[in-house]
Amino acid sequence: MEYALTGRLETSSLESLWAHMDHMIDVMDSLYPLEETGLYHQSRLSLGDHHHQQQQQQEEEEEEEEEGGDGNESLFLSVRYGTVKDLLSFANQVSNTSRMKRERRVFLTSGVLLLSLQKDICIKNGHYQVDSEVFLFPWKFARRDIGVDYIPRGAFGKCHLAQDRETRKRMACKLIPMESFRPADIQIQARFRHENIAELYGALLWNETIHLFMEAGEGGSVLEKLESSGPMKEFEIIWLTKHVLKALDFLHSKKVIHHDIKPSNIVLMSTKAVLVDFGLSVQMTEEIYIPRDIRGTEFYMSPEVITCRGHSTKSDIYSLGSTIIHMQTGYPPWVKRYPRSAYPSYLYIIHKQAPPLEDVAEDCSTAMRQFIEAAMERNPKQRWSAAELLKHAAMSPPPEDQPRCQSLDSALFEISRVFRKNELELPEQICDTSVCSNEESTVAKRKHSLYIDLGALAGYLKLIRGPPGSEYG
């Protein structure tokens, strides 16, 4: 049978062709029977059936997309207050949204902010948008001008300083591209609250970017301080180490491994230091965690992490010891003895060699050296825990070993006591409003002046009680 195939084939001609092919296939089936004829059955479709199948398939795809949209409709439409459970659910839904659906959908501002922040973060009409409800500012070093375009960058995002337009609350805002976001980035920080862990306020999806709002460390990170002011004094290191140990003691009691303790993940607040960046953290279910890949930053990794044969919370303690060496010297361990240009990777060195105690600062006290040795013990079973290190003698130095910070309170008290005593003995003709400019009266005024005697010391006291400032650099 011949068919004229000029122009477009008419439907009747194609149907006749398919009927003829069906007849031929039946003959072949009778002559050469096959056990599995699924391939034939798939091909034996009439033109009408084929068109119907395409239409049905298209309808099913549209229906599936609509169902997916309905399931996530509330997810991508508005910002709302919620619980930690709501926040984690939002993170999981964002992560599970397929790339194809992301490309087809026009995202509006959406997300969950914790209920406890209602007074500090104002959601208006179901949205919380940049420039409308919150300002974002590039985060620069506080101690030097390095350019308006500088933004500290993390592994998968960049940080800004945020401020609510109405309440003026200041926050840190980490921006993560939607395709790089994982629920693990916020799970630990949302579930566990501690004064030395940066508090998470909420997560928003805006402009296909996840905005994580959290407690702001306006003092910057320890790495920023090291790069701007150089090595830190030992009493500054002690102050910071105590706060980090408290955070680690809490996390380890919950069987959580941070996996990335380093100077850039320790942030200075006004009166404390906090840990940030929990994207690599793991909640252990057994005594030993066996990873599928290496987690952390190579300079600060413990030997057992590099082997990937299993490690515990003690790996964070080793990383803390490496961080202390960095704070003492201004350089991570290993790099002074093994230049980066000659050794592109330090994993083999860490695995084969003893802990880098040779990199400990020369002016390190005996107690602090012993502390570092206990924290960087190669055998994890013999390595001290966070709770044990908090009781180490290095964390409670005697006054004579830290005269500048230990004797300051008593010095202020003594000066103020003498001042009050001398004020009572002043002659009646001398008053605070005197404008005499002769040498004798000026000296007398300085001698009894609270502003001159205590002004600088008051600022010095504030620095000691809070994060150390650049004055010690």
TrEMBL record:
Any matching Pfam family: Pkinase
Keyword Kinase carried by entry: yes
GO MF annotation terms: ATP binding; MAP kinase kinase kinase activity
Recorded catalytic activity of this chain's protein: L-seryl-[protein] + ATP = O-phospho-L-seryl-[protein] + ADP + H(+); L-threonyl-[protein] + ATP = O-phospho-L-threonyl-[protein] + ADP + H(+)
Domain Protein kinase, chain residue ranges per copy: 145-395
Record key words, sorted: ATP-binding, Kinase, Nucleotide-binding, Serine/threonine-protein kinase, Transferase
Region entry Disordered, spans: 47-72
The protein's Enzyme Commission number: 2.7.11.25
Keyword set includes Transferase: yes
InterPro entries: Kinase-like_dom_sf, MAP_kinase_kinase_kinase, Prot_kinase_dom, Ser/Thr_kinase_AS
Residue ranges, compositional bias (Acidic residues): 58-70
Protein name (database record): Mitogen-activated protein kinase kinase kinase 8
The organism of origin for this protein: Callorhinchus milii
Organism lineage string: Eukaryota, Metazoa, Chordata, Craniata, Vertebrata
